Model the fold of this input.
Amino acid sequence: MTAFLLKRLLIGLATLLVASMVVFGVMEVLPGDPALLMLGMNASPDALESLRQQMGLNDPVVIRYVHWIGGLAIGDFGRSYTYSSPVIELIGERAAVSLPLAIMSLVLSTVIAIPVGLYSASRRGRLSDTLAMGTAQVGVAIPNFWFALLLIYVFAVWLRLVPAGGFPGWGAGIWPGIKSLILPAVALALPQAAILARVTRSALLEVLGEDYIRTARAKGMPRSAVLWRHALRNAMIPVLTILGLQFAFLLAGTIIIENVFYLPGLGRLIFQAITQRDLIVVEGVVMLLVATVVVVNLLVDLAYALVDPRLRVRT
Amino acid sequence: MSLLEIEKLKLDIGGTPILKGIDLAIEKGQVMGLVGESGSGKSMTALAIMRLMPHAARASGRLTFDGIDILASTEEAMCRLRGDDIGMVFQEPMTALNPVKTIGEQVAEGIRWHTGANRADAEARARQILDRVGLPEAKFPLSRYPHELSGGQRQRVVIAIACALKPKLLIADEPTTALDVVLQKQILELLKDLVDEQKMGLLLISHDLAVVADMADRVTIMRHGEVMEDGETARTLSEQVHPYTRQLAQASMHVPDRPHTTAASSTAENLLEIRNVSRDYPGRRVSLFKKGEPFRAVNDVSFSLKPGQSVALVGRSGCGKSTLARMILALDHPTSGDIRFMGESLLGKDETALRPFRRNMQVVFQDPYGSFNPRHKVERLVSEPLHLLDETPTPAARREMVAAALHEVGLKPSDMEKYPHEFSGGQRQRISIARAIITRPKLIVADEPVSALDVSIRAQVLDLFADLNQRLGVAYLFITHDLTVARAITDEVMVMHDGIMVEEGGTADILDHPKSDAAKALVDAAPDLHRAIARRLQEQG
Done:
């Protein structure tokens, strides 16, 4: 197991290294001069030149890359050009919104999807299965921002249960923070849950055709018990794969929802940084996301081994 | 009253009749053999007794077990019966166990479910029954997972699950078809002992008359969803009153006509020469820095094959015979030794250099279902090896060659426009033979070519092999664990065991007077219809 973990960690580090080169390289060829951006269009050429010098923008590419990657390694992501505060602080502030939001919607989507998938699979071909899967189809098709508006109208404007948008900050207390994340989490979770429910159902149906399911039935176990005890765990592999992909998406792919709810999340940070050519922030956020994906994949692999003994590597 | 009584059982799936009025009865402690070819409805009969038929199946008639009307029972009542009073063992041990649960969990599960025992008690009982089926705790702890066991061991676990609660009736659906003969014998003996010990009724489903003759007190012979004949085993199988029974018995012992054997051409050059061939596979890593001991699958094997000769390579599963075949076909490289075909070494040649050799040796696999791309027409499937020719034939010439090959194997040239699913299993095996002979090879390697086929079709395919050998002079290397195949169409037999060639010689010599332990075990375990009937008649006096 330790050898497996060590190997996976090394692969993860290599992935990060390659990703860092690609990210840095792409930012290098994109147009936009950070110094010009910071000082404005009317800045004198002398001032620009001295700022470039100061920021190290005139150094050769390799030097700047090494400098940047060296900083990343010790947690120094550099300073933002536009906010003039350390990138790590910006990311930290925004992650404090995005991470809880991603976790909430992931939990929500799992809690909805797996029972629905189980229910549908156990009543395959019946009306209730058709209805459940039809609803899921609609869930995939509905744009989540539209659904978000609907949620705001019903729960914030009409019922006044939760705020319509904005984020008070965790300083205002845990509950107000969570309260303002509930609607966005639901809006994000719905399409994810719909996809996950369909994956769960089809994985279960495939497993239910296996010989060992017949063996379990021949033991005298009723259909429902067989579904829970024998089929579910075998059907988890594709479900875990989708879950891993969804988490990565939920962390940064939520810009539309963040805009609808005025949430200061990572999606908005990276969007603003791109429009303002705040390249160092873009690079930092992207690297963080790559690192998240690497870690999530590692966790998913470990979960595979937990689910299926055949995937366990012997020590 | 019988333990199980089936009267006029009819079953259809989506309007297609599968069973057309089956009558069958099993007494307490009796072994009933249910024989028939694929599609005869024997498995569906078993599933009907368990009420585990497919969703769309509709059954009518009378089916009583121990006084209970099965067809009218509620699902809850059936759940109480299944696994407790009726146990079932399936054909495919490799997939019959849940891969993510330990064998202990899987055996104990049914015990807990039916008796309400706590975990510790259920595990204690699981330990007992696993010990009884030959998986002692010391070597096979309950914490083992199915993938850590071999096929024979897994089938023992399945039997343990089925027999854990001492059912009144055990149903075994082709329990040994996927196993080699030696394992088959062990499993059948285990079943027999358990039946005797626990006074169970046993419904043994098999396509193999010899197995049934050995095991069953009575036989029922089915065809197309109907019972052809039933009666006391020895009398039914020796008198063979019903024409279908006679047909089955004859097909299962069929020996094709081969007027001239190739022993005469022993002065000819060797077609194939295997010299001191070994093959090692790397062992599992002991730790990060230490490699495991390599595993020697084939160990210093030598033999030669003359043109037109027909040789069987027999041995138990895992003895290295398929590895050897892969090396002969140049699909794998020996670790040491030399393989010479048509006077030249195959080693160290690249694919281009191998082409003339490849077109002179072709292969026929066991599973005619799995070895075709279902989306290709027969013309394309059969003409596949033609790219091995130096000059690619024109489309017209290609069609002609395919037509000739199909004709050769007894199919119609017009069949080339069809897809594989339009053919029966036997016809598909003919197509794969047509594919093998289209380049006019000098050698065909056939890996268990008839073990997936029914007895009557298998007799026809064996005839075809023999005929091609006589007419075209093709040499055969048959890889099989089935000695009747070896006896039917080979001149010589080689016996492999644990990677070593332990015995070789004339087919009749070895099969009648085996010398090595491995060959003796194989011959001893091979089911034999004549022997089994004779023994039964003798027992009855």
About this structure: Chain B touches chain A at residues 50, 52, 75-76, 79-84, 87-88, 90, 92, 95-101, 106, 109-110, 113-114, 145, 147, 158, 161-162, 284, 287-288 (CB under 8 Å). The domain at 4-252 of chain B is CATH 3.40.50.300 (Rossmann fold).
